[in-house]
Each structure stands twice: as structure tokens, then as C-alpha cells.
Amino acid sequence: MPACPLCSSNATYHFHRNAQRDYFRCRVCDLIAVPPNQRLGSEAEKAVYDQHDNRPDDPRYRAFLSRLFIPLSQRLEAGAEGLDFGAGPGPTLSLMFAEAGFPTQIHDPFFHPNSVALTQQHDFITASEVVEHLFAPGEVLGALVKCLKPGGWLGVMTKRTPADFAAWHYKQDPTHVVFFSEASFVWLARKHDLDLIFFGPDVVLLRRP
Prior knowledge:
Shape: globular
Number of strands: 10
CATH topology: Rossmann fold
Strand order of the largest sheet: 5-4-6-7-10-9
Helix content: 10-25%
CATH superfamily: Vaccinia Virus protein VP39
CATH class: Alpha Beta
Distance between the termini: 36 Å
Number of helices: 5
Strand content: 15-25%
Number of domains: 1
């Protein structure tokens, strides 16, 4: 069985199979993951992202991002500066924070690489519809936590695994390779000594003490 890409445990088991892929679940952190040999290559992955039509002038897209923007912005101090990790081809969340008085850098490995931002400290970091794409979520999220200033916030938006995984549409996207449950985020918060707040079915805020 493949090791868990979040907690690195070998306590994984085969959980589900459909026509496209297999899914393994971790007994330690409850993450569900697609095995490495069934992930897309980088070119095929980018080809999927190139089809996304997310634009700053789309009010529906802004309303969607508001599910993360509103609870996080309400907790920021005046002048807080942040980073939108995985901004995608049409960065929008960073503009929403900037418009609210919170200057925000962007980083996206495919569309807006910004390695310098990953060496800096930030008051907040956002990852909207990003973590489900990560091949190494434990490593990446651990690095992002280290980029937070004391008291800083990590805001994540991703659908959490439902009871009926077999019928769940979210897993059908070929670029979605890891799936978090509430227990997965609880494990992450304990691992890095973070405060944790859930909002609805797809938003979580983690705060560095």
C-alpha cells in the first residue's frame, strides 16, 4: 500500500475503486489519496487547468471565493499582508483582499511562479481549491505553516469527504488526488499546533499561535 502523502504513515488501505482510479485511505489522518502511478503528468495536469475560466470580473466566481474571503478577512488586523497560494490562471482572491486593504502576493507553480514569496513570512496565506491537487500535501502545508507569522492565518477551501464517497462528484476531476475529511484537518492542526475553525462544508481556517 502507498504511504499516506499527508502524514507519511504506512497505515493505509484500499478504500474505493472506480473505472478511472483507486483510492487509499489512511488510518492515522483519514486522508484519501490516489496512488502516485495514477496521477496525471504535469503537461496533462496543466491542460486541465488551462480550461478553467475564472476571472476577476465574474461576480459568480467572486461570490464563490467569498466563502473563504469573508471569514478570513474578518479576522485580519488592519494592513495585514498575505499570499494566495495556487492563484490559478485568473488570480481573483488576491484582488479581493487587496481591495479590502490587505496587500496580497500570488504564487502558482504553473501560471505565476513566485519562489521568493515562499521564503517570506506572511500575516495570512490562502489556498482556495488547491490542496486537493497536491501530490505531497504534508510537505507543502508544513512549509506554508512555516511561512506564517506568529498569529498568522492559513485559509483553506476544499470539499471535505462525504459519507457517500462512491457517489461524490468531486473525486471525478482527474487533477484531484487527495481528499481531506474533518479528521484530516484535526490531525494537521495537532501536528503543527494550530488553532482550527471550520466554516460550512468546504472552508477551514488554521491559526498559528
